[in-house]
Amino acid sequence: MRVATRGSNILDLVFSNEVSMVEDLKVLEHFSTSDHNMLEFQCVLRTGSYDALVYKYNFNKGDYNAIKSVLNDINWDTVFDSKGTLACYEYFNDRIYELIVRYVPQNKRKIKQKFLWLNSRVKKAIRKRNKKWKLYNATKKGY
After folding, report:
1. Which of 9, 86, 94, 136 shows a CA-CA span of 20 to 30 A to 72?
2. CB atoms within 10 A of CB 48
3. What are the CA-CA distances from residue 116 to residues 17, 52, 53, 101, 126 (Å)?
């Protein structure tokens, strides 16, 4: 909230760990006899699904003979001559990436996520909660 909600002060806050979860934030008139303004906002909890395409390299079907041939054709002594360790590493890494792009096919996978709000951060929090619940149940005493 970046608007004053009590006189010229900002006293009322809306906390969310997802910025897109709070929409249409409005400051309204005073509530009854209070000197605080009311806040109105929409909490977005979409439950639809979406499809995403993910491309992954299929290293099982790579043409490693072609990769080996290209790497054998490079005169590494002249390439690495008078270069530092970082420059040599970057050159080698760039060549390997180019060869992967050229000789390793990609698989296209469609991923369907059922709940838009169920992102990796929420899943991690759920796992953490479940782990703590199991620990609590394992260590609690029967009072």
Report:
1. 86
2. 8
3. 15, 12, 15, 32, 15
Quote the distance between the C-alpha of residue 122 and its chain's center.
11
Q: Look-up: residue for tokens 């008078």?
A: 82
State phi, psi for 48 to the nearest 5 degrees.
-70, -175
CB 70: neighbour CB atoms within 10 A?
14
pLDDT in tens, 65-94: 999 999 999 999 999 998 999 999 999 999
At residue 97 the predicted structure's pLDDT band, cuts being 50, 70 and 90, is very high
| 55 to 17, 97, 99, 105, 112: CA distances (angstroms) | 29, 15, 17, 10, 14
Query: Tens of pLDDT along 33-45?
Result: 777 778 787 887 7
Tokens 């360790």 correspond to 85
Query: For the chain, how many residues are written?
Result: 143
Give residue limits of the domains in the chain.
1-46, 50-109
